[in-house]
């Protein structure tokens, strides 16, 4: 008799296969999870790289900006200092040049003024000499002497000196009551009246020189710069 026994060997194989399949599925899941985690890590690394690059770029940019800003400011200061030094030197040179020109102009002006003053005073002296007192005018001389004698009549007259240019005889006619004599040092209408207590000199040239000096002083005073 033959026993009809069930073959459990096949069941065992099936079970093993099912278990193996389940393990494979679990492994695939684990692998998938690991792959996702790896991908997330890679993305995070990329983000960190970008952030690090960005921060490094910004820091480097800021550092370079600060560096070149300082260099630029230093260059500006150097250029300003150089410009100021150059400008100061040019201004000083211009001031010196202007001062030299002013001194030169002032010197020429003083020379020109002295010449003009001399010309004016000489011209006025010539005009006065021509208009006011005509040389060898005995009548004018006598008139002036009489005028002085009248003013100083309380004083005693010792002598009256006239210049050699005068016609003594003609002059004496106008001054009949006084004694006249020639003084070789006098000229033109000059005369000297000697009193017992002093004398009066009428020297035309001296008066003219006084007038000329006064004219020169006035011109110089009015023309000062």
Structural features, described:
- With 225 residues, the protein is of the alpha+beta class.
- Helix content is 73%, strand content 9%.
- The protein has helices at 8-131, 138-151, 168-174, 204-222, and strands at residues 157-163, 180-183, 191-195, 198-202.
- Helix 1 (8-131) runs antiparallel to helix 4.
- The longest helix has 124 residues, at 8-131.
In short:
The chain has about 220 residues and is an alpha+beta fold.
Keywords, separated by commas or semicolons:
4-stranded mixed sheet, single chain, 9% strand
What topology does this entry show?
Elements (H helix, E strand, L loop, with lengths): L7 H124 L6 H14 L5 E7 L4 H7 L5 E4 L7 E5 L2 E5 L1 H19 L3
Parallel strand pairs: 1-2
Antiparallel strand pairs: 1-3, 3-4
Helix pairs in contact: 1-4, 2-3
| Protein structure class | alpha+beta
How far do the termini sit from each other?
Answer: 164 Å
Secondary-structure element series: HHEHEEEH
Number of strands: 4
List the quaternary state of the chains. single chain
Mean of residue pLDDT values:
84
- What's the alpha carbon Rg, rounded to whole Å? 65 Å
Shape: rod-shaped
Uncertain segments are none
How many distinct helices? 4
Major sheet characteristics: 4 strands, mixed
Which strand order does the major sheet show?
A: 2-1-3-4
Helix content: over 70%
